[in-house]
Each structure stands twice: as structure tokens, then as C-alpha cells.
Amino acid sequence: MLTSHPPKGGGVPLAGWRWDDVPWRASSGATTWADVTCTGTWDGAALTAEIVERRAPRPPYVPRGPLCASPDGDPSLGQEDKRLDLDGDDDVLAVWVSHDPYTVNVLAAPRRGAHVRAAVRRTWAGLLCIEERDLPSPSRLRAVQDDAISLVRADTPLGRITSAVPQPADGVLELHLWIVTDEAIAFARGRWGDAVRLVGFLEPID
User: Are 89 and 59 in contact (CB under 8 A)?
Assistant: First the structure.
């Protein structure tokens, strides 16, 4: 559910839905919404809700922390000083900023840490952490993303693909489906290996 007002959303079709079963619902104009957890039966096309409960509060967002305990560089520099020009460099796997102190963190391809450090230092003299990891390159993740998007309307064991989001610091493309099945896992593993992480909108229960 999106954060506009009234919220706009989409996703799994619901069969036999009754707003009367959701007393904590809210409405604005022609739109009605609520935060709920549904337990029901999935028939491959729609969910028939059998138990509808108020959803527990979302856990707070925890930002990604620094890569190293002792970053090097000028600690007086901050966000207003940050200038990075690393686009198109396949040796740069991921970049993020951590705070307290303000630090630029960079994941570099194996044996390319010195090259990446030199590239960063051309425009950033502040605190810096660099770590080498053996992860898929940005171009590899883009190729996997393009391939996944090409399957959005295809009839595959993945079912409905709702989004394909690169997570470069984890070295995966996060593929969001309505439901993750054993068949979907086998299909993704055979097509993309470990470069894809499947996330289901619905979670099977015993």
C-alpha cells in the first residue's frame, strides 16, 4: 500500500472480500484501506481470506552500517561535500553512506580495491571504507533484471512478477512474486543461479 492520501495500491486479487470484517478500516472518497494480515486459501489466481487481523506495526528501518571500524579520510567533510563519479565502473559493486560519522562505503570487485579507492579519492577526501567482495557486477545484475522483466507477461513457474529490484550490496536481484513455490525456486536457480532472491507477497503456512 502506497503512502499517498488516499493510498493507492495493487497486488493479489481478493475473493469474497468484506470490508465489514475490518472495523479499523479508513476511507476517503471512493477509496477504503486498512493494514491487515490475511490468512486464507490461494487458488493460483486469487486469495480467499478466511482470517483477517490487524497487522502488527512494521519494524523500524535499520540503515546499513559502515564497512570498517576505522575509516580513513577527513572527518570534517559531510554530505554537502560529497561528490562521487563512479557510474559505469563495473569494479564498483555498491556504494552507500553511513552516519555518525559521515562515511562513504564502497564494495569493490576482487583485487580491484586499489583502483576503486583511487577513483573515489579523485572527488571525495572524507571518511571512506572500501572492502573487496566476490559479488555479481552491476552489469551482471542489470542483465539479470532485464531478463526478469522480459518474463513479466510470460507463463513461467515464477507466476506473477510484481517488481525486480537490484540489491547490489547483497549481490542479488530481488524478484517480488505473488507467492514463492518450489517450482519458482527451481526455475530461478536454473536460469540465474545465485543472482536472484525471490520474495513472496504471500507466505505459505503449514
Answer: no
Q: Count of residues for the chain?
A: 206
pLDDT digits (tens, 9 = 90+) for 85-116: 888 889 999 999 999 999 999 999 999 999 99
| Cell numbers for 172 | 542479488
CA-based nearest residue to 156, from 169, 165, 147: 147
Q: Are 35 and 55 in contact (CB under 8 A)?
A: yes
**pTM for this model (two decimals):** 0.82
Contact between residue 162 and residue 134 where contact means Cβ atoms under 8 Å apart: no
pLDDT tens for 22-54 read 898 898 888 888 888 888 898 888 888 888 888
Contacts of 199 (CB under 8 A, 6+ apart): 174, 175, 176, 177, 180
The three cell numbers of residue 95 are 556504494
Q: CB–CB of 93/137 below 8 Å? A: yes
Task: Determine the CATH number of domain 138-202.
Answer: 3.30.300
User: Which sequence spans correspond to the domains of the chain?
Assistant: 1-59, 79-132, 138-202
Q: Is 17 helix (H, G, I), strand (E, B) or coil?
A: coil
What is 20-58 written as a DSSP string? GG-TT-EEETTEEE--EEEEEEE-SS-EEEEEEEEPPPP
